[in-house]
Structure formats: structure tokens, C-alpha cells
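Protein modeling request. Please complete all fields; requests missing the sequence field cannot be processed.
Requester role: graduate student
Desired output: 3D structure, C-alpha cell encoding
Chains: 1
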Amino acid sequence: MNELISLELEDCKEKMVKAVSHTESELTKIRAGKANPSMLDGIHVDYYGSATPLSQVSNINTTDARTIIIQPWEKPLLGAIEKAIIDSNIGLNPQNDGSIIRLVVPPLTEERRRDLVKKAKEETEKGRVAIRNIRKDVNESIKKLKNDGASEDEIKTGEGEVQKLTDLYIAKVDQLAELKEKDIMTV
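Delivered output (187 residues):
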């Protein structure tokens, strides 16, 4: 196979891996009724005038399947952390006892579970679309290689390889979605 086509395929694979990992990280943000420190990943706290990730100003642990404990490294941060959690709109009410903040994750209703499954499917679809867009871009790049001396057969083979990669990574995204849906619907 043409060396330039091989480079395009490597680039394609790298981009698709990133698309899958991005989809995976978006799916972890959808809470499934179990307490998980990663639920707080997107929350930033005002730390001496700069927005700092919550995980960099405190310890975040789970004591059981329903409770997250946030222990700030500096006591004055309790109020700022509490405010950041409320402002983040993740649907959890912080309970401040003066030294730590407790977040109790309420059990999900059937209706809420269905909404979360819908949200997970939307994120999955975004992942599939991203992979298809990568396929389109790489196929266009491969077709342009005809000007650089790539033969018709090499271009067809390259496009076939891109399709195989696309199928593989879309299957991985679907597998992630299936696991997340099972996780959400498990009572």
C-alpha cells in the first residue's frame, strides 16, 4: 500500500480513538444513580480568584453507593465548593457540616432513568457522527493522493481500510452505550 495512504490511515485511527474516548468521558458524566467522584469532574471552584477544578482543591471519595464526601484542603473553601456544586446544576444538594461536604445521590425514578438513557443515546450519536466525519475527511484526503501518484486500486484499498476502522470504532461506541444503558436501568 502507498506510504501516504498508510499515514492517512494512522491519522484516522488516532482521531477515531480520541472520538471514542471523548464519548466515553461524556457518558461517565451521566449519573446512573450510583455515587461516583467523576460526576464532579466538570465543577470548578473559585480558588483565590481563579477557576480551579474541584479535584485540585479537595479530596473526593465515596463512602457508599449513594454518598460522595468532599474534604477541602482549606476550610475557607467550603462555601465556595458548596456554591460551585449548586451552580453546576448537577441535581445534588450539598450538605455542609463545617469540615466536609456530603452529597447524597438520590435513587433514580423510572422516568428519570429513561431521560438519562435518552441523554446517553444522544452522546453516543454524537460519537458516531464524529467518527463518520473523520471517515469523510480521511477519504477526501486519500482521494487527493491520486495527484501524488497513488493508483486507483491503492485509493480503493485505503478507503476500504478506512471503512473497516469506522465500523470497528462505531461498534466500540455502541458497546459503551450499551454498558451505560444497562448501568442506568439497573435498579
